[in-house]
């Protein structure tokens, strides 16, 4: 049986609530903004096949482990790792792994909020008919005018941070759970509506073939590593979010079943996003490998030309905001939980403190596109933060999580939480966690820092 610790923050009312919350954490801009464009850049179906394999052999085992650690510790990631290291008789400084996750979440949210602010502003731009009849140059000017205006970016960044902190301040059941149980079904409904729209207006079967016809001749080790990295990052691993959400999971809920449900839902959202976007891209003669500009500079051209484009374009950016919002809530929760545990702050005070600090750090990203825009070939503050968190801190966090649970925790502790017995399921998870996941994450990490090419 699992340990009898209880979280002072409360717990999810059911396994479904946890699945919705953790899926909300995993489903974000990465699924709807990043997945379609990196699929377009890396060969379509061949990339998707590798991505799905990576979800199965890396993402799921590491996610199960984060949930396991969170539920066993029942505290913020920092205090959980301190408690579990002492319990297992290991090096006391393993709590630094928790700190790295909390700091990663802080830094990611600081720029995530700015990008989410773009999506928020595009809801109103699309709804007002600004994209109707606009050509590529006009759409490009709309985007350039937005990011080059620090006051506008600051306003949208501030608004997004406020709505995020309001939810977090209300606590686990009244805030986090209530928000995700409303937002996640709404997000899925919006996605299905957009897929239906793509079926009626776009070249749907061409989009299907692009996503699912695997031309393995387009694969390279670089593509495999990109798919591996994205599979890891899309599940919100290594940043403390899944660990702290796991600390609120009821003791009788199956970690294996819930993790599979989350991974399935997260992957489904990414695939549905591709099915909604690529048919529209192809129907309008646009480029599927348009890169990060696919969402903000390419799709608005299509929405501006299509029948009903104003309505469905607006719905698309509402979807993007919902996805960003559910992820943002999870990014700040580990830090809020730590402040409540260690400094006896109320949820509202802890959320306000974290929100203000994150907002201040976010100013660096706001100004990266205008007042502090770097010279040609130089790295901006935003680029630096994105590289540091996504390419160094998160894979390193995932690697250390796999090492701690796979090699340093006792068999009894793992069995207590997983309750899977000693059958093939447990043995497969343990093998993937001890050998495959660390080697794969290490390969991504070494590739990023230039050791592998």
The helix/strand order is HHHHHHHHHHHHHHHHHH
Distance between the termini: 46 Å
CATH architecture: Orthogonal Bundle
User: What are the segments in which pLDDT stays under 50 over at least 5 consecutive residues?
Assistant: none
Determine the CATH topology: Hydantoin permease
Please give the number of β-strands. Answer: 0
Beta-strand residue fraction = under 5%
Mass-distribution shape: globular
What gyration radius follows from the Cα positions, in whole Å? 21 Å
Total count of domains: 1
Please describe the biggest sheet, giving its number of strands, its sense, and whether it closes into a barrel. none
**CATH hierarchy class name:** Mainly Alpha
Class per helix and strand makeup: mainly alpha
Mean pLDDT: 89
Number of helices: 18
Helix content: over 70%
Outline the structure in words.
The protein is an all-alpha fold and 453 residues long. It is 77% helix and 0% strand. It has one domain: Hydantoin permease (Orthogonal Bundle). The protein contains 18 helices and no strands. The longest helix is centred in the last third of the chain and has 35 residues, at 309-343. It is globular and about 65 Å long. The model has no long low-confidence stretch (mean pLDDT 89).
Secondary-structure map:
Blueprint (H helix, E strand, L loop, with lengths): L14 H12 L2 H13 L3 H29 L3 H11 L7 H33 L8 H12 L2 H20 L2 H30 L2 H9 L8 H14 L6 H6 L8 H29 L9 H13 L3 H35 L3 H22 L12 H28 L2 H8 L5 H25 L5
Brief characterization of the structure:
By secondary structure, the chain is mostly helical. It has 18 helices and no strands. It has helices at residues 15-26, 29-41, 45-73, 77-87, 95-127, 136-147, 150-169, 172-201, 204-212, 221-234, 241-246, 255-283, 293-305, 309-343, 347-368, 381-408, 411-418, 424-448.
């Amino acid at each position: 049986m699992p340990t009898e610790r209880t979280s002072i923050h409360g717990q999810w009312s059911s396994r479904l609530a946890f699945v919705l919350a953790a899926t909300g954490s995993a489903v974000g801009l990465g699924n709807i903004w990043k997945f379609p464009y990196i699929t377009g850049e890396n060969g379509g179906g061949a990339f998707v096949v590798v991505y799905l394999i990576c979800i199965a052999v890396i993402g799921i085992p590491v996610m199960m482990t984060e949930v396991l650690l969170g539920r066993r510790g029942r505290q913020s990631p920092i205090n959980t790792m301190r408690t579990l290291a002492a319990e297992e008789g290991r090096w006391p400084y393993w709590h630094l792994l928790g700190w790295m996750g909390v700091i990663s979440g802080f830094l990611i949210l600081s720029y995530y909020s700015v990008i989410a602010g773009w999506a928020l502003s595009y809801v109103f731009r699309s709804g007002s008919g600004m994209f109707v009849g606009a050509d590529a140059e006009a759409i490009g000017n709309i985007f350039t005018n937005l990011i080059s205006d620090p006051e506008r970016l600051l306003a949208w960044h501030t608004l997004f941070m406020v709505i995020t902190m309001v939810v977090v301040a209300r606590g686990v059941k009244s805030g986090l759970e209530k928000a995700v149980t409303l937002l996640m079904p709404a997000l899925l409904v919006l996605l299905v509506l957009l897929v239906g729209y793509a079926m009626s207006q776009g070249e749907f079967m061409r989009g299907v073939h692009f996503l699912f016809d695997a031309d393995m001749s387009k694969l390279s080790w670089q593509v495999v590593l990109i798919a591996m990295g994205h599979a890891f990052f899309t599940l919100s691993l290594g940043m403390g979010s899944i660990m702290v959400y796991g600390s609120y999971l009821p003791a009788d809920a199956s970690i294996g079943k819930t993790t599979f449900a989350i991974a399935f839902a997260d992957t489904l959202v990414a695939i549905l996003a591709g099915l909604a976007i690529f048919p529209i891209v192809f129907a309008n003669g646009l480029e599927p490998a348009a890169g990060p500009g696919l969402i903000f500079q390419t799709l608005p051209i299509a929405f501006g030309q299509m029948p009903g484009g104003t309505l469905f374009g607006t719905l698309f950016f509402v979807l993007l905001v919902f996805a960003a919002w559910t992820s943002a809530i999870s990014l700040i929760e580990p830090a809020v939980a730590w402040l409540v545990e260690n400094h006896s702050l109320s949820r509202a005070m802890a959320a306000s403190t974290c929100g203000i600090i994150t907002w201040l750090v976010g100013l660096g990203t706001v100004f990266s596109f205008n007042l502090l825009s770097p010279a040609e070939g130089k790295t901006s503050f935003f680029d630096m933060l994105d590289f540091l968190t996504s390419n160094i801190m998160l894979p390193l966090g995932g690697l250390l999580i796999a090492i701690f649970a796979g090699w340093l925790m006792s068999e009894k502790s793992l069995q207590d939480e997983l309750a899977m017995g000693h059958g093939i399921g447990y043995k497969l998870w343990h093998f993937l966690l001890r050998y495959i996941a660390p080697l794969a994450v290490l390969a991504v990490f070494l590739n990023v820092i230039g050791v592998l090419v």
